[in-house]
């Protein structure tokens, strides 16, 4: 059996170990995976504040009050945003927020609804 450790694709812990000939196990989150089935572009996954993978069309909830440049008020924690669109870049979520219009958000400030 191989003593090589692999990073967990779910929580990104570097301590994933070989459980048997095909599966690896993460001791931190309990995830089991086959490294042969992990897609080559797994670096393009967008994860929320809790580590859940986001997809186009998902609904998310803001987890922190976010100040908006040029606006008199901030976006409050708990605001629900529907039908997000994922993009490349630092602000990797495009969406429309009631009362604010089109916005770009960072995935680290939202959680999947």
Most strands sheet: 3 strands, antiparallel
Residue stretches low in confidence (pLDDT < 50, at least 5 long) are none
Number of helices: 0
CATH architecture of the largest domain: Roll
H/E series, N to C?
EEEEEEEEEEE
- For this structure, what is the CATH class of the largest domain? Mainly Beta
Q: Please report the distance between the alpha carbons of the first and last residues.
A: 40 Å
Beta fraction of the residues? 25-35%
| Quaternary form | single chain
Helix amount, in percent? under 10%
The total strand number stands at: 11
Global Rg:
18 Å
Q: Would you kindly provide a brief summary of this structure?
A:
The chain is mainly β and 113 residues long. It has no helices and eleven strands.
Structure overview:
- This protein has 113 residues and is mainly β.
- It has 2 domains: 44 residues, N-terminal domain of TfIIb (Single Sheet), CATH 2.20.25; 67 residues, SH3 type barrels, CATH 2.30.30.
- Helices cover 0% and strands 27% of the residues.
- The chain has a 3-stranded antiparallel beta sheet, with no helix packed on it. The protein has a 3-stranded antiparallel beta sheet with strand order 7-6-11, with no helix packed on it.
- A hairpin with a 3-residue loop joins strand 9 and strand 10.
- The radius of gyration is 18 Å and the shape is elongated.
- The model has no long low-confidence stretch (mean pLDDT 86).
């Amino acid at each position: 059996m191989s003593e090589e450790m692999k990073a967990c694709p779910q929580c990104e812990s570097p301590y994933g170990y070989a459980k048997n000939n095909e599966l690896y196990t993460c001791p931190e989150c309990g995830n089991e995976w086959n490294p042969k089935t992990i897609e080559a572009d797994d670096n393009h996954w967008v994860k929320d504040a809790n580590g859940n993978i986001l997809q186009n069309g998902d609904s998310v909830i803001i987890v922190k009050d976010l100040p908006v440049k040029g606006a008199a008020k901030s976006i409050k924690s708990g605001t629900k945003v529907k039908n997000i669109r994922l993009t490349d870049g630092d602000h990797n979520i495009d969406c429309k927020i009631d009362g604010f219009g089109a916005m770009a958000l960072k995935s680290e400030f939202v959680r999947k609804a």
